[in-house]
Write a structure and sequence with these properties.
Elements (H helix, E strand, L loop, with lengths): L3 H9 L5 H16 L11 E10 L6 E6 L4 E3 L1 E4 L6 H13 L4 E3 L6 E7 L8 E12 L11 E7 L11 H17 L2
Parallel strand pairs: 1-7
Antiparallel strand pairs: 1-4, 2-3, 2-8, 5-7, 6-7
Length: 185
């Protein structure tokens, strides 16, 4: 029962490339077979929730330089037992940015990704089944440093200025640019 809301979101989601098609099928299979899929105790992997967080005038996206992974990534984190991935995405965006006024631009999934997290200290390698939402700052865009990042920075929606070439970040950037063309004037 607790897995049904995410299953419904995934069933509605239309992947945009082969990576997402593969991830969607793996996520649906994982939901069917792993009852503790929202818990870190599931050592194969677990669901996480992230955000493509844009500023109030829709001109920039916020990325963080992750301390443990040494990569520029979107904001997000572990579900820790919460099956409401939108709620987790909003919570993580608020905690990691220091911005309280964040709202969803759409309720449906924006992007999905499945990636292997390497061994860090005593934690074994495992998969993150990441559900991502399109969120917007509703007011002041000032960010506050957090303990999980080396830096937080707003970036213009252009591939040339992003501090990463990771395929899933580029895919979200392209989706964001298409979304803006379709829904803003």
């Amino acid at each position: 029962m607790h897995r049904n809301p995410l299953k419904a979101l995934l069933d509605k989601y239309n992947p945009t490339d082969i990576e997402e098609q593969f991830a969607k099928q793996r996520m649906l299979d994982f939901l069917d077979t792993c009852t503790d899929c929202f818990e870190r105790s599931c050592t194969l992997g677990h669901f996480t929730a992230s955000s493509w967080l844009v500023n109030s005038d829709l001109s920039k996206v916020l990325l963080m330089h992750h301390k443990k992974l040494n990569l520029w990534l979107q904001l997000g984190g572990h579900c820790d037992g919460d099956n409401n991935v939108m709620r987790v995405s909003l919570k993580e965006a608020r905690e990691e940015s220091g911005i309280n006024n964040i709202i969803p631009l759409k309720e449906d999934i924006f992007d999905i990704d499945m990636h292997l997290i390497p061994q860090i200290n005593q934690e074994s390698p495992h998969y993150h089944f990441d559900i991502r939402f399109l969120l917007k700052v509703d007011g002041n865009d000032d960010v506050l440093a957090n303990s999980e990042s080396n830096a937080l920075q707003w970036f213009a929606p252009e591939v040339e200025v992003l501090p990463t070439t990771h395929s899933s970040i580029i895919r979200m950037l392209n989706k964001w640019n298409m979304y803006k063309k379709k829904y803003t004037y």
